[in-house]
Structures are given as C-alpha cells and as structure tokens.
Amino acid sequence: MTATQPRPRLVSIAFWCWLAGAIVLMLGGLLLAFSNGPVPVFFRGAGVLWIVAGALLSYIAGRTRSGDTRFRRAAVALSIALAILLALFSVMTGGLVWLFALVLVIVPAVLIMRPAAQEWYTPESDV
C-alpha cells in the first residue's frame, strides 16, 4: 500500500461491517452476561467471550483499515472462527441475533479478500 493510493471502497465497507458486527457481538454478550433472569453459567461465560471477541474484532478491523496486511489476515481468520461459533451458538439458543452477527462478520471477510481490496494491501515493491 502506498500513500498515493486512496483506500478502496471495499475496505471501508468491510471495516464498517466488522465494526457493526463487533457492536452486535458485544451487546449480545452484555445481555447474556448481565441479565437478571435464570441464565445458565455456560451462557453467562459465553456472553463474556462474545464481549472479548467483539472488542478484539473491532481493534483488528481498525488496524486493517489503516492498511496492515498482517491484521487483514488476522481479521479474516477471526471472522471465520467467529462465524463457526456463531452458527453453533445460534443453533443452540435459537436466537436470530446471532445469525445477524454472523452475516455482519462473514461478509467483510469476503469483501476484504476481493482483488480490488487485495491490490491495495500489496506493496508496490512486491508487484
């Protein structure tokens, strides 16, 4: 990536989708972890893990937006892992919120690997 190239629109769209997915993950985790009702310990622990995963995803997405190739790969790997866990969790709980978070996490992973976005991350010396 060079300073003269503007950031592709796909990178910006992927960042905002990752940020929205991270917010949904953290809000869902907060609801699970701190609800007053009779929630099993497993779900409270999963809520804390969703909070941590959402915070981590938002941090990595921010670094990805600045043009760091290592963080782009890390964000894609985290998105795939979260997509698998969100699919399993939505089957276990039957909640549609987790499917919404799943879409917000997996779509940017696909967008950021598109050729237009991938060229922006490739330094000119490697071309």
TrEMBL record:
It comes from Mycolicibacterium aichiense. This is Transmembrane protein. Keywords: Membrane, Transmembrane, Transmembrane helix. It comes from the Bacteria. The keyword Membrane applies. The chain crosses the membrane at residues 12-35, 41-62, 74-92, 98-117.
